[in-house]
Amino acid sequence: MLPESITALISALNKLPGIGPRSAERIALHIVQADSVAVKQLAETMLQAREKIRFCTTCGALTEKSPCSICTDTRRDASLVCVVEHAVDILSIEKSGTYRGKFHVLGGNISPLDGIEPEDLRIAELEKRLTREFIKEVIIALGTDVEGDATSHYLAKRLARKGLKITRIAYGLPAGSGLEFADELTLSRALEGRREMN
Amino acid sequence: MLPESITALISALNKLPGIGPRSAERIALHIVQADSVAVKQLAETMLQAREKIRFCTTCGALTEKSPCSICTDTRRDASLVCVVEHAVDILSIEKSGTYRGKFHVLGGNISPLDGIEPEDLRIAELEKRLTREFIKEVIIALGTDVEGDATSHYLAKRLARKGLKITRIAYGLPAGSGLEFADELTLSRALEGRREMN
Hints:
2 copies of one chain form a homodimer. In chain A, helix 1 (about 5-15) packs across helix 2 (about 20-35). In chain A, the strands form 2 sheets. A 4-stranded parallel sheet of chain A has the order 4-3-5-6. In chain A, strands 1-2 form a two-stranded antiparallel ribbon. Chain A has helices at about 5-15, 20-35, 35-50, 85-95, 125-130, 145-160, 185-190, and strands at about 55, 60-65, 75-85, 100-105, 135-140, 165-170. The first copy, chain A, starts with a helix and ends in a 6-residue tail after the last helix. The first copy, chain A, has 7 helices and 6 strands, in the order αααβββαβαβαβα. Chain A is of the alpha/beta class and about 200 residues long.
């Protein structure tokens, strides 16, 4: 019933993350009725962003020029490197506003079932950095799923060397949440990770 | 902190209906890391859709060629015209699958506060159709808000002529909903619109 060009747009939008069929339809109908100049601008902005953004050759972050602004920022603590799974995780940690070290993007977790082996991740690059840069602590900030756990332990073992501290971020109850919303694993980890209150 | 081209994309996406800042960010980060060919295709589909889609000169529907496929469909009942506010409303009615007549898009509701007067709507076009086409019934399917009510009554008065039936779609309890979710106005309309059960 809908014209072909709208159906095509709906199915293209539907492939974007978090856009279901209903909101794809709503956006498509908005676009075809929107100001022609605005639609051109949106398309152009999209192409520009895709074209300009690359991965930082040092840390793997999303950036317009490599090395990225975090890697070249001399005010940041170069003795700390935080290892994350994806480039977007940097954003989450930056938003928390508490971390002032550097980053290293792994590009995934080890997952033999999905065919992801250690050599598919940016681990060799991290080892290179450990020899070249004056890194005192590697903070592992991977997920708490099976793959995240396995990768964290693999990394801790493989990176171990004299004078290098390897830590993993704390897992426990999320802020603002009650015990009744926590699953057993979260609770057991929160208990294990308990700290003395002075 | 984020590269300029990503922030620009986030704010452009944020302007689309139903896309808040969080999902705009998520989509933007997906786009800059997506396959370059796929991003070009999405941008192209968007531009194509905007370029091809126009309003049907007869009924006001969204279409690639005017008159639209509904206006030219001889299997549809040309004696019935359903008046809707927006072109997208046609889609909702078509999805219900019960209507087989024609449509007429008004383009809005009368709203003096917003500066929308009867002459800003496609009422004159509807009057022209009433003289040219063999229309026996005009079904008014506007919203139940103040503007929708006012416009419906205005239309009923202005279009009144011998041999033309003017109806308004029924308002009442939505399907699958209980009395406890209905506001007073909906309930009073549902009572007013009660029908005999045979």
